[in-house]
Amino acid sequence: MQAMVIVTSGTNCDLELAQAFEDAGASCQTVQLHSILDAPEALDGAELVGLPGGFAYGDAVAAGRIKAALMRERVVPVLSRLLDRGVPMIAPCNGFQTAVQCGLLPGPAPSRPEVALAPNVSGRFEDRWTGVDFPDSRCIWTKDLAAEDGHELPSAHGEGRFVASAETVSGLVDDRQVAVRYQDNFNGSDDAIAGICDPTGLLLGLMPHPERWTRHSQHPSWTRRPASTTTTGQRMFRAAVEHAQAALR
Amino acid sequence: MPACPFRAELMPLSLGLQALPQILIGHGFPGRVAPTVLDPPVHPFIQTLNHVFAVGDQAHVGRFRQGFQPFRRRCKLHTLVGGRSVGSAGFLLTFPFQTHPSPASRAWVSRTSTIGVQKHFLHGVSSVRRAKNLFDFVGFWLLPGAPMPQVHRVEVRSLQPDQDPRARHVRSEAQALGLPVPEYVEVASVYLLEGDLDQPAIDRLIEDLLCDPVTETAVVGIAPVAGTVIEVHPRPGVTDPEAEAVEFAAHRLLGSSPNVRTGTRYDFASHEPAAAADLARRALANEVIQEVHAAPHHPEAFRVAPAREFEVREVALIGLDDAALMQLSREAHLFLSLEEMREIRDRYQKLGRNPREIELETLAQTWSEHCVHKTLKSRVRYEGEMPSGEREGVTQNEDGSHTIDNLLANLVAAPTNRMISEGADWLLSVFVDNSGVVAFDDEHAVCFKVETHNHPSAIEPYGGAATGIGGCIRDVIGTGLGAKPIAATDVFCVADPDLTDVPSGCLPPRRILQQVVAGVRDYGNRMGIPTLNGGVWFDDRHVGNPLVFCGVVGVMPRAFVHGDPKPGDRIIAVGGRTGRDGIHGATFSSAELSDTHADEFSHAVQIGNPIVEKKFLDALLEARDHDAGCLFRAMTDCGAGGFSSAIGEMGEELGAEVQLERAPLKYDGLTPTEIWISEAQERMVLAVPEDNIEAFAEICTRHDVEWCDLGVFGTPDRELILRHHDVEVGRLPMSFLHDGIPRLEREATFATPPVSPTLGHEPDAADLLSGLVGHPNLASKHWIIRQYDHEVQGGSVIKPLVGPHADGPGNAAVVRPVPGSERGLAIANGLATAWCADPYRMGLAAIDECVRNLVCTGADPERIAILDNFCWPGCDDEVRMGELVRASLACYDGATAYGAPFISGKDSLNNQFRTEEGDVIRIPPTLLISGFAPVEAERLVTSMDAKSAGNVLLLVGTTATDLGGAHVTELAGGILPGGTGEIPLLDLQAGPANAKAVARAIRTGSVCSAHDLSEGGLLVAAAEMGFAGRLGIELELDAVPGDSRNPMVTAFAETPCRYLLEVAPEHVDAVVAVLADVPHAVVGRVHEDGVLRVSALGLEVSLDALRQRWLAPLDW
Known about the structure:
With 249 residues, chain A is α/β, with parallel strands linked by helices. In chain A, 28% of the residues lie in helices and 22% in strands.
């Protein structure tokens, strides 16, 4: 399966994301956003897509804002077509911030932003692991994890507080688009929402970084835990690669 | 003046444009703009001029694209059909010229005489100054139909302002500074957009770029003012990365390119203007780089940088006497000593000419303390106690004093050089490059650099710290042929954050710490480098001189460890543009600070733009790993001294010829000297073979990285030749630049410090323990640590906070440098400033602390490499020099004893502050030891949190009764009964023996947790292990090896070389067996109940309560 990770100035979690795709059995190619803006068809061959974390364009104005503005016209339609074709996509952290602002999430695109990722309630960047729940949802990335307890993921962001109107939040809940919730809602998100998926369930946007937990020794207290065979992050990427294999082949 | 050759000729041309030039005023001719030749009859039209034009041929246009960046995005290119009249002309370029279209300026224009009009034009002239050298003709014209550029203002504020964290921050800062807390604050982002934007364009920018429709609302212009308004805007010329990003995005979205400035508006509902302004100045703005406005700021036009006339200035030096030499050194900010000024004078006397300004500046930069460490390289006569032992280069004089030929070579570097000569082939590149490089595995090398950015951080902590880490990252990138940064460390020394009454010219320490952390955070996080280890030291003597140590570790293939330029290689500059910022940083850091320094040296302070650095990092690694082999032969960063140091160092053996006008500039009007010494951030210099330029350029273009060709390495006589266009502005032999500096000779003395008095009573152990864990030096730094991304790159194995709830203070950080390889790298720091009364003991303790931290996490003690960072209050007298000698002796003895060689280092030797009243506040002498070492396999990695009830605690090392400099002594106000006032002296045999024994113990696989005993001693270390693991600890102090008879002394002594290991009962015998040759004992047990029990002290305290106490002081 061919995964494509879209990078731009200020992207810095692309290597981990590519590694996670590769560990799950995909091959991964990194493509520059500005080359896609010139030739959006470069994405046509993608069977999995990653919108990585980082600080695109320095997160000037707001996190992900400039990247979203650049993507809206020419890249979002291509990604929508890929979703129609059944291509799984993941957008952790800065990717999530970008996806909600360019209308990919909650989707379907095109649309104006309906949800926002505002500054954390603490007003500063925070790096911490938290327990997460995976509610029953449409999301193909988390469907195998939904019934289980005890999952954790790392987060590291300054602007991750999920904000939306009460109607939007209840709409997302009713449509089973809420895919990840914090157990410790450290950034003050509405309904403790950490991640949502689009109506197809293929595109998962989330503030935590599943690509940063694909190896036992990445867990902050791994020295006191039994070596586990697979991590939460690994399982998410494997689920997506398997889904793509089934859907696209 | 030549007659206008242009006006008459261009008009009849058929331009193939609808927009014909209707009016031309001012005109040009090759190499010179002549705006002063105006036709008086046309001047009333000046107000309608809106464009600059330039005429040139294909070659001009090429050069324009390459070097004339500022206007590239805004320029339009038209093809001239004719061209006979202007010789080779084939193209017409136009770009907007900012006039002042407001009624006020119109009135001003019509009032003024022709001369006044000419002055008005000088704003525009600065835009044209660079064009004049690129084009045949340059002038001003009117492009009919084009809207007049003007400044539009957009305000964006939260829809729920009461929930805006920025507003809460304003209130909490007011409270912390003891100022009246505003009842209600609203914060808005302000964007000022200068350019020809129509309403739809502004609406589009708001909708797509500036405002989030879910959470924010925007106003064009000025939102109504109800209460008091304060606005904070960056001063003109200060780097504003956000504005640059908005300019970029606006260009992509609209095609047009406004100039952008950003600001912040604060609305206070019921706060007096004076109180609001006071709060703004003390907590919201730094007037060194920002302006505080008492009303919404909406200028008619942006101010532009003043242009300076180009001239080759000679400095009258020949014949100056000593007094005049020193006056020149001070007034021109050269900060050279009398000997150095004399050397330069005599040199030029022989040449028979005076130095040109740029030559003198080059010498000052290259000879600065910052660049050549001349104090540490000086020959010193030392009077005072000399620790026993033979040291080459140290000789005893007849009067009993000692002479050390070269502190750096004979004491700091000597153990390294001896190890290399004895076959330590893992030391790949030491002391010579931008960082020290050691072997990591068969294919990879790792490098480490730590340096300070103290003086800029004192004046502007955010920018100072950010550019500090930014520069350190560049040092690692610029090591050999390029390393990839994989981890960062930071250590700060500041005054008590509760101190609000600070001397004039100092910032409040809390604000300094907050801003320094924010600077490291914003730069490191944006670069995608995990910040994994660090510390904070509090001492009120840092009130005027905070210390900001930034460290960066990199990894590189071993094939790329060395680089050397060859004659004929092009000098390629990469990255950010050159501006007037940061001029004199190298010399500034070599001077004492005073209360007026903030004003005098504000230009030495800068703001960084990490995204520029991230882009060239990606591009340079790609160029390094090119299929055809590395595309460049050498690389270094532009740090202190800018191009002058970078090119001067790279061309030391070859000479270099530099064309200064080719450097892309942030704005026009810089003199060649300013271009040469500017320390503008985010720039690298490379030596690229001519044949590789094309491939290199392609990579840069793909990564959106700017580059330019500044000239060539290699001159016949090994000279540095500086040109600006065709004019030679400077010429210096490389030999004089690098070898001409006179050696200093210094006197040094040291007197054994007095001993603290012993207490007449025994304080309460529980109070002391609680006080210790809540002491700011020991307390949790989670507020800082969590602001740094310590997960990015996915390589961190031991993070700074450990334990099941990630709230235990980890020893060293461990990272995996090579993806896919289990081999780890431990990174740690050691600092023992509390023992600075004897810098020899302090230095040894710092080395031991660094080693202990590394060994505890599983590192190999045989492969530790360390770095020195000396921060001294000054070296102007014998006592300070004596302290420096003592610390250097510690470096020699410590590195020798541990077999842990120094591989890189740095010094900052003028950290004293002169107050308005003339008092001098000197920092304590500070020696930071940073180190790293491989951890052979992941199974060896050990954390400090206690793991299981029932396990046994083994103490390694002897506990002594010396309490001088111990935290318990500070807290109790004297020496505990049974203790001595001596500062602990490291046992040079026991230290390395204990470290190796602990490493052997960890290798058995039976050590569940390991923690070193440092500040606070045994009881604090045990408490930390307990609460980090959410378990209880029982200690039996009687079992502790050593001669202490008082359990209080045993509990709180800070004797170095000690470790606490947690071992399962069934493995104790196996572990004890490998500890046989060092002092050790079972001193306690781990329990389930979360209580710390010490029967000898009658102590039984809740570890959870201690943890809360430990978390509280810095939980901002």
